[in-house]
Amino acid sequence: MKIEYDHEGDMIELTMKDREGTLRKTDSPFVMEKMDSDNNVIGFSILKVSALKRQGQSIELLNKPEPAWTDFKLWREMSG
């Protein structure tokens, strides 16, 4: 898993699988999903991070153990 912050682009990108993919819109104007060719979520981007901070949103980056992909997939299936 890789987490990067792009100061100039004002975004956080989380990559769970290091492979090619395309971005897809979500219900949130701040989140884009990165999908692989099999339509699996392999990452996501949080856009306009500074705007979220100004709105009082809290973004915590936690040291998550390796099964983060499984946790995210499970959360997505339960919330979708």
Descriptive notes:
There is one protein chain. The chain is an alpha+beta fold. The protein has one domain. It is 22% helix and 32% strand. The protein has helices at residues 49-54, 68-79, and strands spanning 2-6, 11-15, 22-25, 31-35, 41-47. It has a 5-stranded antiparallel β-sheet, with no helix packed on it. A hairpin with a 5-residue loop joins strand 4 (31-35) and strand 5. The radius of gyration is 13 Å and the shape is globular. The relative contact order is 0.21.
Strand content: 25-35%
Largest beta sheet: what is the strand line-up? 1-2-5-4-3
Q: What can be said about the biggest beta sheet?
A: 5 strands, antiparallel
Number of helices: 2
Q: What structural class do the secondary elements suggest? A: alpha+beta
How many beta-strand runs?
5
Q: Which residues form runs of ≥5 with pLDDT under 50?
A: 61-67
Q: Helicity range of the residues? A: 10-25%
What is the helix/strand order?
EEEEEHH
